[in-house]
Specification:
Elements (H helix, E strand, L loop, with lengths): L4 E5 L14 H5 L7 H13 L5 E6 L8 H16 L3 E8 L6 H9 L2 E9 L3 H6 L6 H13 L3 E8 L6 H13 L4 E6 L1 E3 L3 H7 L8 H17 L3 E5 L7 H4 E4 L5 H28 L12 E7 L4 H5 L4 H8 L2 E7 L9 E4 L4
Parallel strand pairs: 1-2, 2-3, 3-4, 4-5, 5-6, 6-8, 10-11
Antiparallel strand pairs: 7-9, 10-12
Helix pairs in contact: 2-3, 7-9, 9-11
Length: 349
């Protein structure tokens, strides 16, 4: 199913919790009430831009917890577009503790095709410390029901929450993967003005992840979910809205996923080059593994469309490899898949 979304943000609507990290008005840049007219305008704009068949997505807040009449009015506004094929269905995001059989029947009848759960963590201690108001069991039960009713299941997790650790995040990833979602979104925690985390940060009680720490962890998570055939459809908080103005601290970058993917390619390139260097050491006992006596040239082959990620932001990967004594250029190989890499030593026969 296409993951091109016509996104509308129903910020804070229906959610009675105030999680430690949450300031939806800053994240979305929208404090107004989404209306039926907004649905119509958003779809018409997408159609004019050539996005026929995309999903209409209601993000932000907790869609299944809003006033029932209001929720139905938005779903009804989307109905004609589903009927004539202008949109392929409706995607919503919500809390795991606002899913039950009755709501799933309603969503099904109105053409909702995908439900994303804001799990954030599968560690009950982390959930409690960040005022989530639900447990890991709620995530499990909601996921099972969503799949039983035939919806596409998506899950969302966060890293670097208050009292969280890399080990807890990796455990959360493993537990979420066992639920069998089709999609995952990974959000490193960002400290925003007007949140509990902001207060804890100012008191010195919360130390957010640095950008490098978050990139290191999230690059591992991307590879893990991809290995489990779970589509990673977003990594990092989206830019826009008022995020830059509300940002205080933490791992925010407008191209965060690209940083993570560049890290994946750099690590794999170094591993492959080290393997080549080990082979050279067998021929020349005077060299230590991974430490060429002179700068060695290599060609790095990646799949089409991945060259910029291998090269890195502002050629950061090429520069880093050069510092380590490896002069590298990047080419494409149509036979390779995403995140695969092949290395050839220049001049090798």
């Amino acid at each position: 199913m296409s993951h091109t979304n016509i996104a509308l943000f129903v910020s804070h609507m229906g959610c009675q919790m105030k999680c430690s990290f949450c300031n939806q008005h800053i994240i979305t840049g929208n404090s107004g009430l989404v209306t039926k007219e907004d649905v119509n305008k958003a779809v018409q704009k997408a159609l004019k831009s050539g996005h026929k068949g995309a999903q209409l997505a209601f993000f932000g807040g907790s869609f299944t917890a809003v006033d029932r009449d209001y929720m139905l009015s938005l779903l009804e506004a989307a109905g004609p577009f589903i009927k004539n094929g202008d949109i392929s269905g409706i995607r919503i995001s919500t809390r795991p503790d606002f899913i039950d059989a009755d709501i799933l029947k309603i969503l099904k009848s109105y053409g909702v095709t995908a439900i994303e759960l804001g799990a954030q963590s599968m560690d009950d201690g982390v959930l409690a410390q960040n005022d989530r108001g639900h447990t890991s069991d709620d995530v499990l039960n909601a996921s099972l029901m969503i799949k039983q009713y035939g919806f596409e299941l998506g899950v969302q997790m966060m890293t670097g929450l208050y009292t969280d650790t890399d080990e807890k995040s990796l455990s959360t990833a493993q537990k979420l993967a066992k639920l069998g979602p089709q999609t995952i979104r990974i959000y490193p925690t960002v400290v925003l003005k007007g949140t509990k985390l902001h207060e804890l940060y100012l008191k010195g009680e919360y130390v957010p992840q640095t950008l490098d720490q978050a990139v290191n962890l999230c690059s591992r998570l991307i590879l893990f979910f991809e290995s489990m055939e779970i589509n990673v459809i977003r990594v990092g908080l989206h830019s826009g809205g008022a995020v830059e103005e509300g940002f205080v601290a933490g791992a925010y970058h407008p191209a965060f996923k690209e940083l993570c993917e560049s890290k994946i390619y750099l690590d794999k390139a170094l591993q492959k080059i080290d393997q080549e260097a080990d082979l050279e050491c067998d021929k020349n006992s005077g060299l230590k593994s991974g430490e060429p006596a002179v700068k060695a040239g290599y060609t790095l082959f990646v799949s089409p469309g991945e060259i910029s990620k291998m090269t890195g932001h502002k050629k950061s990967n090429i520069i880093e490899l050069d510092k380590k004594g490896f002069s590298c250029k990047v080419k494409q190989d149509n036979a390779l898949k995403k995140y695969d890499i092949r290395v050839e030593k220049d001049g090798k026969k």
